[in-house]
Every structure is written in C-alpha cells, then in structure tokens.
Design a protein that fits this description.
Strand content: 25-35%
Oligomer: single chain
Number of strands: 6
Strand order of the largest sheet: 3-4-5-6
Distance between the termini: 49 Å
Order of helices and strands: HHEHEHEEEE
CATH class: Alpha Beta
CATH topology: Nuclear Transport Factor 2, Chain: A
CATH architecture: Roll
Length: about 120
Amino acid sequence: MSQENIEIARRAWEAANRRPRPDFATVNALFHPQHELVAVTDPLEGRTRHGAQGFREWLEEIDASFEIWSTRLERVGAIDDGRALVVWWGAFSGQAEVPSGSVTSPHGSPSAGSTWRQTSPG
C-alpha cells in the first residue's frame, strides 16, 4: 500500500473522530461506502457495522452510553496492497449496556489493552 493511501486512512480516522462532532463531509469523501467497523462490544453481540449507517449507529450508541469519551490515534499501517489497519485507543467513562450484560470501565481506562469487566443481567 502506498504512503498516500496510508495518509488517506489517517485523514479519514481523524475526520471521524473530530470533536465535538465528526467532519462528515470528509468522512463521506474518504471512507469506502461499505467500510467495516468492529466496535469493542460488537463481538459480544456477534456483529460488525458497515458503511456510513454503521458508523452513525456506533456514534449514537457511544454518545448515549458514555458520559465522557475520547480517542487517540496510535498508528496506521498497511494490511496488504488494498487495505489499511488503523489502531486507536479510546477512553470511556460510564457504563455501556449490551444485550449479554454490561461492559464497565470504572476508571475510564483505554479500551485497547485494558481489562473490562463483563457482567450478565440477573
């Protein structure tokens, strides 16, 4: 993958994570229409998200579930000639409800590399 394409992936991530609101014009211009987003809780639910609709759903769920959250780009690299991997950290404060129970980060720990406690309802 060319350095130019890695930079496009970096710009796309930065636009999607701009605060207080994402730069949707840049997101729509740079993201593949059916890009895949796998959120930290998605494997618990057996799903992934695709395209702009998937990103909007994720953003709405995060905003509704966490009082405070932020992200930080760690690195962008090539998977192969046509795909990039974007590695990022997220700090979340609050509690997120998922169908199988809840995932809690009591100290706003980064989502990657941290310990999350999963509890089942009832």
